[in-house]
């Protein structure tokens, strides 16, 4: 079976009814009307280019300068999208609420907190060279805090809505189901950067423990969801061609989980006693290396199924799934290299970063082209 089906309750068809009504009024020409939360994946995919470069094991001439420029670009895109989304909610509240009721589109509410977290971390790692450490810390604290709160809400709220508002068939699981539950993992990985800047004592300990708890929250939810996705692929085949790119999303929690474990181990000595900090170092390897191995297996599968479906895959915003998840594998490989010194991880990090940049160049160019033509700013039925 190559189609994905789901049964929806009486509340769910709102988005469909709104879309048909808009078409009847000729409102497809109003781009803000159809601005969905999946657009924040553009910020995620762009920001990870900068963040991964900042931690890459190999330093290339001019890399940090280029990475800082990409961070600036991601920041501008984030500001524009947040402003546009606020206007979207004010002008078209019915359509906006429809996105939250749609069984597929509501999954991408997880993109907003991850976009905030990505830009916030980039500000601390790269933006401090431009605006200074104090301002960079302030920006990162604000974006991390807001992104974490929204991410926790999506991690609990979207599954709750899936359980209470919809009835999904066995072939409904797809990579997008990971989007709402991954933000706490991103908060854990990037929150580790803020641990040393948190006041010593209970405040720092609370920050560390909160990050570790969010690591577990997202890890277990992601493993359960990945099992459903694996089962769906084996029993029902690939998702519709327009959603094949979502297979790559599984790499996100895997790579980010390895990154989080390594980052928390790095800052553990500033919070825990010597033996406990050493235990975190051991855990980061015992968890990180096997998880990295599974990520490489999934990467191979993702490449294979994408190649299999390449001639029939239409371009849409799910193609940004080729970027952020790969970037997470870059940062995860880098974290393992820092903790083991094994060249295997350094070589993998550089190779995956090259793949990430190539994928970003293609997807970004296609996105700009789609915006100029207006294809990406129309309701689905008009494409």
From TrEMBL:
Keywords: Cell membrane, Membrane, Transmembrane, Transmembrane helix, Transport. The chain crosses the membrane at residues 39-60, 66-87, 108-126, 141-162, 174-195, 207-229, 241-262, 282-305, 317-338, 344-363. It is found in: Cell membrane. It is a multi-pass membrane protein. Pfam families: SLAC1 (PF03595). One of its GO terms (biological process) is transmembrane transport. InterPro entries: SLAC1/Mae1/Ssu1/TehA, Sulfite_efflux_TDT, Voltage-dep_anion_channel_sf. Its main location: membrane. GO terms for cellular component: plasma membrane. Belongs to the tellurite-resistance/dicarboxylate transporter (TDT) family. This is C4-dicarboxylate ABC transporter. It comes from Nocardia terrae. The lineage of its organism: Bacteria, Bacillati, Actinomycetota, Actinomycetes, Mycobacteriales.
